[in-house]
């Protein structure tokens, strides 16, 4: 005899799936915005004097250019940084979502 | 087409005998007459309406307990409106609890309750509530524990204990918790979540949600007016309602009921029929069968118990006594359980607007001290109790009368269900006999359910295949219905799910919403999220390290190397890439797991709160159903 499951049972047994595309998009936008805002924040703060006495803007954030070719701490750099951040966030988010769904599928044999 | 008209012709030859002219019996007769079928209704009393009758004493009308008309079953509502037309009044409800000389609105209103209880008492109530949440009674097997666990022991003692014990005549410690739990049995968690999510959206503001608690319908001259009208309608359509007709013997032959002997005005009459519907108490029905049923069945019938009820109606020479429709009397100093003010149900219940007719309700057992008291003593008791409570000055009481109603409540004790099942099993062999109604099925039903069983019984006579025992007696009435009449009330859909045929179309589109709610509140798989976040972050560090190695230079990746302050052993090298992957996987794993855990915990807490508050709100009018 099949027994109809109660609401509670249905809820308790339900496992959430992630929408990989949406998760990717969200992480992409967030990471892109973080880089964009961080870059422009340094620009607004203005240059600081280095040990050698030179005026430089955001020496540490500048290190991102090691991965993001073409990135620098400038307004146009902030847009390039946004695009890189967006791309990496989107890929990571989608990957997390995709992997999560695969694992859930395996674990719950759907 | 031909077979349809043939079955119609077959039906026309049927003669249906109905026992009892209460709501169930008369509804059956009414539905049959609509189908052009003749019926004979046998009623042992001199009036129709059964427990839902209205008594007329010198022009003052009163019910056997005030009868609200409210239902979620559309076909019943339609019949009520069809019969009563403009005489079906919509009334606002006002009722209070009387406790220690104080009135509390019921359902409770917080400021009024706190004010009435006083600061000290309110603090104690809150403390006892907190205690009940932290240290609930286990096991939760009796009524007192069940209610205390939800409201605190103190609130239970103030507002549930005395009244429940007055109504049922047994200590709350001996009442099963199941009885109270019935109230929330039909509660849908998904429905509650949906309401919680959709409630505050401004787009829904224009949907008028009216609660069945705050208002009800009432015939202008009481429920008796409804049943007198139904009786008049069926008799004008070739059916008969025979009053003072006490069913004495029910003759059964092979597989069916053959005929009935009825005592009318001292003479036995033989009534034959092709179909039989009974709304008389099951216990009596079994006792009146001929040949006698097996011992086991008779014994089961004897196990069915009832709680009885009497009303003392008093005519008061005062225009306004109190504004309520009724007052619950929780005060242990007096025996009465409830007072009705029938003028507030409908002004036409009294012939003189300068006067008031109160109905004082006493719950008792047939043959006990209250039941056997003379009418005069009962009126004196009622007078005295009104004075104790300070509600009426005894000198204003002009007159009074008493009505005793045996078997007002079928008792749900520990043996009743087995007994009913044995009887059902036995009676199922008689294919032309159907049991309907409240005592007819030993179900604690209101009018609407009694009527619905009768409607389905008629459909069965016409060829349907409904299981009357599946009509849900535990349905909650207090739930909200949408003002929009085109929407089928929720519980009728629930009801229809249990039936082989669906009398009224079911609204569509619920499944999608249900599915969405489940997916919104479904738990995140902690391990899956941990693994996937771990893998992606591990992969990111691995790729970043490899990229820097590929880029090369005199010093490879001096800045990424700083990671080794956290990832001990990490370096920008092939080996380091794997070490970084390991560390990063671990941290990603922990982060992902924690995220899922916290999200599930908070969602679970939200769902728990919604469920609790839905439970509490379904308990809002619990006392109405005691
Ligand atoms: C105090 C109180 C308050 C209530 N309040 C409400 C309310 O607010 N709203 C609501 O909807 N419902 C209310 N009810 C419930 C309502 O009264 C019943 O659900 C309804 O009357 C049941 O109808 P029925 O036809 O099944 O049974 P009954 O009303 O009991 O009718 C059965 C009939 O069968 C007759 N009978 C019995 N034995 C024989 C026999 N041997 N021969 C011939 N006839 C016989 C009886 O005389 C009676 O007329 C209340 C009940 C009580 C006790």
Describe the structure.
The complex is a heterodimer of chains A (110) and B (626). Chain A has three helices and two strands, in the order H-H-E-E-H. Chain A has 110 residues and is mainly alpha-helical. Chain A is elongated and about 70 Å long. Chain B is α/β, with parallel strands linked by helices and 626 residues long. Chain B has four domains: 226 residues, 3-Layer(bba) Sandwich (FAD/NAD(P)-binding domain); 105 residues, no CATH class; 105 residues, Polyamine Oxidase, Chain A, domain 2 (Alpha-Beta Complex); 87 residues, no CATH class. In chain B, the strands form six sheets. Chain B has a seven-stranded mixed sheet with strand order 7-6-17-18-19-16-20, sandwiched between helices. In chain B, helix 5 packs across helix 7. The radius of gyration of chain B is 32 Å and the shape is elongated. About 8% of the residues of chain B have low confidence. At the A-B interface, helix 1 and helix 3 of A face helix 8, helix 17 and helix 18 of B. The site of flavin-adenine dinucleotide (FAD) has 35 residues of chain B, from helix 2, strand 11, strand 20 and helix 15.
Concise synopsis of the structure shown:
The complex is a heterodimer of chains A (110) and B (626). With 110 residues, chain A is mainly α.
């Amino acid at each position: 005899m099949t027994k109809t499951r109660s609401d509670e049972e249905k809820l308790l047994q339900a496992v959430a799936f992630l929408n990989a595309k949406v998760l990717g998009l969200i992480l992409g936008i967030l990471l892109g915005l973080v880089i964009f805002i961080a870059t422009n924040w340094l620009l607004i703060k203005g240059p600081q004097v280095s040990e050698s006495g030179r005026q430089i803007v955001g020496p540490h954030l500048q290190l991102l250019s090691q991965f993001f070719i073409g990135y620098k701490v400038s307004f146009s750099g902030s847009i390039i940084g946004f695009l890189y951040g967006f791309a990496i966030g989107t890929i990571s988010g989608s990957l997390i979502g995709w992997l999560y769904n695969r694992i859930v599928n395996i674990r719950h044999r759907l | 087409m031909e077979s349809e008209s043939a079955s119609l012709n077959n039906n026309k030859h049927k003669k249906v005998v109905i026992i009892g002219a209460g709501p169930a019996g008369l509804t059956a007769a009414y539905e049959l007459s609509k189908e052009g079928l003749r019926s004979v209704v046998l009623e042992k009393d001199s009036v129709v309406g059964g427990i839902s009758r209205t008594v007329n004493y010198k022009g003052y009308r009163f019910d056997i307990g005030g009868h609200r008309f409210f239902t979620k079953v559309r076909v019943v509502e339609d019949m009520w409106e069809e019969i009563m037309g403009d005489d079906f009044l919509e009334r606002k409800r006002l009722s209070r609890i009387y406790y220690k000389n104080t009135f509390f609105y019921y359902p409770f209103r917080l400021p009024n309750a706190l004010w009435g209880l006083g600061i000290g008492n309110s603090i104690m109530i809150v403390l006892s509530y907190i205690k009940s949440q932290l240290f609930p009674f286990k096991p939760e097997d009796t009524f007192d524990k069940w209610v205390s666990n939800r409201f605190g022991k103190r609130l239970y003692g103030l507002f549930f204990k005395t009244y429940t014990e007055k109504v049922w005549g047994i200590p709350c410690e001996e009442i099963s918790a199941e009885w109270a739990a019935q109230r929330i049995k039909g509660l849908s968690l998904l429905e509650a979540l949906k309401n919680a999510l959709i409630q505050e959206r401004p787009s829904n503001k224009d949907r008028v949600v009216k609660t069945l608690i705050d208002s009800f319908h009432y015939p202008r001259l009481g429920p008796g007016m409804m049943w007198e009208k139904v009786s008049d309608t069926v008799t004008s359509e070739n059916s008969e309602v025979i009053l003072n007709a006490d069913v004495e013997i029910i003759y059964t032959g092979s597989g069916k009921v053959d005929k009935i002997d009825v005592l009318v005005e001292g003479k036995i009459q033989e009534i034959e029929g092709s179909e039989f519907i009974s709304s008389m108490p099951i216990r009596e029905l079994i006792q009146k069968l001929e040949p006698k049923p097996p011992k086991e069945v008779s014994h089961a019938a004897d196990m069915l118990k009832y709680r009885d009820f009497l009303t003392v109606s008093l005519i008061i020479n005062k225009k306004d006594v109190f504004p309520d429709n009724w007052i619950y009397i929780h005060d242990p100093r007096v025996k009465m359980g409830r007072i009705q003010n029938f003028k507030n149900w409908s002004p036409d219940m009294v012939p003189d607007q300068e006067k008031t007719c109160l109905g004082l309700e006493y719950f008792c057992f047939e043959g006990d001290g209250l039941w056997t008291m003379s009418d005069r003593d009962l009126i004196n008791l009622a007078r005295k109790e009104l004075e104790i409570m300070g509600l009426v000055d005894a000198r204003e009481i002009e007159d009074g009368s008493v009505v005793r109603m045996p078997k007002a409540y079928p008792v749900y004790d520990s043996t009743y269900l087995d007994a009913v099942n044995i009887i059902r099993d036995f009676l199922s062999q008689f294919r032309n006999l159907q049991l309907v109604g409240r005592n007819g099925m030993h179900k604690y039903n209101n009018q609407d359910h009694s009527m619905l069983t009768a409607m389905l019984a008629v459909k069965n006579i016409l060829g349907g295949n409904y299981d009357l025992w599946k009509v849900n007696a535990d349905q909650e009435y207090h739930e909200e219905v949408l003002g929009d009449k085109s929407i089928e009330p929720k519980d009728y859909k629930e009801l229809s799910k249990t039936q082989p045929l669906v009398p009224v179309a079911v609204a569509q589109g619920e499944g999608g919403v249900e599915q969405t709610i489940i997916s919104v509140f479904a738990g995140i798989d902690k391990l899956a999220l941990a693994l996937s976040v771990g893998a992606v972050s591990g992969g990111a560090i691995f790729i970043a390290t490899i990229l820097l190695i590929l880029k090369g230079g005199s010093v490879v990746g001096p800045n990424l190397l700083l990671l080794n302050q956290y990832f001990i052993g990490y370096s920008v090298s092939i080996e380091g890439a794997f070490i970084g992957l390991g560390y990063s996987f671990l941290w990603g794993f922990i982060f992902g797991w924690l995220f899922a855990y916290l999200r599930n915990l908070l969602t679970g807490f939200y769902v728990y709160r919604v469920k609790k508050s839905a439970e509490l709100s379904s308990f809002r009018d619990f006392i109405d159903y005691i």
